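From the shared-data thread, chain only:
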Amino acid sequence: GRAMSRHEIAYWQVRVRISDLVGGPQDTAVVLIQGTREEAYQRAVRVFGSQRVVGIQKVLGGFWRLRPGVRDRLMILEMFRDFAAEGISPLRAIAARLPTFPLRIRRVLAPIAGAVAAGSGLGEALRFAGFPDREARLIEIGERSGQLVELLERTIELVHETETLRQTLLTVAMYPALVVLVMGGVGWVYRLFVLKNIQQVMVEMGSDLPWASQALVVAMGWFPIVVGIAVLGGCLWRSARAWLLRLPGLRSVAEMIDVMRTLWVIEAGLAASDPLDRSFEYAARLCLTERMTRAARAMARWARGEESGRVPMYERLLDVGYPMDVA
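Structure, as tokens:
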């Protein structure tokens, strides 16, 4: 069991000592690293030094529970953008604003400050603090290309777009659930207090309930099962999201966001002199819809020259499903 846990890929909380790096009242910080236990430990040692790594613990449950919220991430990204526009380094920005932030923000900034002070770039430091990989990578591209302010702005826009889509999905999922609950509640009240008396009268008159009333009795018998399925769907939200994205209206919105993300990644990659196939591969990882994911991967293969009968880029973009204006 111990041997298996050492080779299990998961998220790990690594506690590191940062008091000698950044000073201040906080002695240690918790960084999040994905991989096996050995990989997580070695990466922490490589960044912070073995003398500063004081403990490692596997993250139990969903990693997303430890991720900073949307408001917190936006607040931190906007802070770095504003200070970077003034030519102020991330570490000085944290030192200037740390006392003004609430405790939850300071807990997020502690591993960022420690990682930056230890020599990491801002993108890698944000990944240590639990920021999504897509946001951290865009900032890394901005650091390599010298366009950190522009890429921070693009990352903020990406967070807003993602949150808008999330709220849309929640709204779409919530409305039918509320309709079912209200109708089911009314049906149960009708069945328990009204239909019961009607049935008794009909029996006394030597007649049966109308077929519609009988159907209601059967439907109300299935109502608890429907509620249970709805609760299970809420628990399995990530899988339910993939199903919701198949709905025509949501799919078109999600595909538009995928196209915007792809353009941002390609533009940032070109500015940083990244290979085109690598940018398309990363864009595929950011896509929400299967169609645009396949399109980005097809363009990555095109960029690597793996397809026979090579055609111009704009023709291939149209072939795999990108809009005309993108091509």
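The first strand starts at residue 10 and ends at 17.
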